[in-house]
Amino acid sequence: MKRLIALIIIMLALVNFLPASGQIAKTKNTKQEWATIRLKSEHLKSSDTLVLTTYGNYIYGELNSQRTIATQDGTGIYTFRIPIRNVPQRFSIDGAGLRENSALLSYYAEPGDNITITGSREAGGDWQMSFSGTGAAKYQSIYSADTAIAKLARRLGSRIIRSPMQRNFGRSDSLSAYGLSFINGRSRGMIPEIATLIKARVIGKLYERGVLFLSPRLSPKATAAELNYLKRQYDELAARPIDTVNVITAQSPEYIKLLFERLRTGATFAVYPSNPSLKALYDQIAASFKGPYFDRLTTHLLMGYKPDANSTTGDYLDCIRIALSKLKDTIAQGYLRRQLAAYSKGIDSFSFALPDTAGKIHRLVDFKGKVVLMDFWFTGCGPCLQFAELLHRDIIPIYKDDPRIVFVNINADRDAGKWKESVSGGRYTPPGSISLFTEGKAFDHPLIRHYNFTGFPQVVLLDGNGKVYSALVPHDRKGLLALLQEALAEGSISKGKR
């Protein structure tokens, strides 16, 4: 009964909240306008730097974004002048010095916003951010909703619920209903587009967690009873209303992620115990979505693709070619064309020059005549640790005395000290691999941008002529060994050539 009430609240909130489905979002400005944000917090040190990221239309991850690094002025204040390229303009402010509850992630600005943000410690010990100035209401609403939902989640987590699945979806119902009602009461004065995006953010973030809870449990080892239970939970989620028409909601990355995970999990149930192929997922998106939803979900699928046993590199590139003939978003088309060019076998690789921990510069040309496996990672990346362990345990020992191949790991941290500490720890950098650094530029480094990387680990295999052999390298022992043997056997280089 409680779940039904929560669901009714969510549906009513959506009906009352979303603009007419035909309404077009304001996506471009005819002139340059600005928003100004000043931030000061007790826990930030004078040496801390913060990063402002502004986003264009959502493509995938951090793609179609620009970053600006800011330092404190003499009074301990960081000042950001945000160019308004889209209305609303999505942005984030983050940095190593900001604690989890004080980073501003996926906020929305309008021309003329002039905000002062102050961070301080509450009596209970938690950090609290307060907002004042022109346009402060929407910032305070987003922050207060996030904070209130987090506190409610802690209380709900202490209750005894019959199963982990019921706990997960029960929380999502309660938190979504609470978050939507919380923002409804504070949306006065917001332009409709921003109110819609904030709501879509709440729904997307919370229900995506529920869907993601299902996926890893769909293993071939699941019993019939477990599978039936998971399917009932998924069917309950899939029966909930979704918006696939409103062009404003399609700009919410959180909502697009929810739709994608919902579709992918449903496709997995359909072919269980196998996994759906890339082409099958693309075909389902094409059959189920139109307009900006098709564009967003297609680019989300293709830019976030990871190699698996059900789809080859050829399948991936063929899917990109098909998508390019149907996509309307010219920016998404541009990214996919770059992806097609950078990932095609035989294309020239980016000619890098990067330092190691001693400051020595290593250039791509230094490895001419060798197959090069480049492993990209950052500190704190769990999957990066898993891939490093795979190299250390199963791959590098086989080739440690083979002069035809070299292993290079490339770090994408912003802090050189953190990178060096991780290298000395050895968990991310297996013995026998050369450790290089992108000089604190992270996603802004030309090498990272060349391959459109949006997350890590990423692995690229080059042949002896510095050309791409594969930019979709398997992350399992069998697949990776087969690819390396294939590259060496093709005669890209001669045995023993240096």
TrEMBL record:
Predominant location: other
Protein species of origin: Pedobacter albus
Superkingdom as given in the UniProt entry: Bacteria
PANTHER family named among the record's database cross-references: THIOL:DISULFIDE INTERCHANGE PROTEIN DSBE (PTHR42852)
Compartment(s) of residence: Cell envelope
Annotated InterPro entries: Thioredoxin-like_fold, Thioredoxin-like_sf, Thioredoxin_CS, Thioredoxin_domain, Thioredoxin_ResA/DsbE_sf
Matching PROSITE patterns: THIOREDOXIN_1 (PS00194), THIOREDOXIN_2 (PS51352)
Alphabetical UniProt keywords: Cytochrome c-type biogenesis, Disulfide bond, Redox-active center
Keyword Disulfide bond in record: yes
Keyword Disulfide bond: yes
Protein name, entry field: Thioredoxin family protein
Thioredoxin domain sequence ranges: 343-489
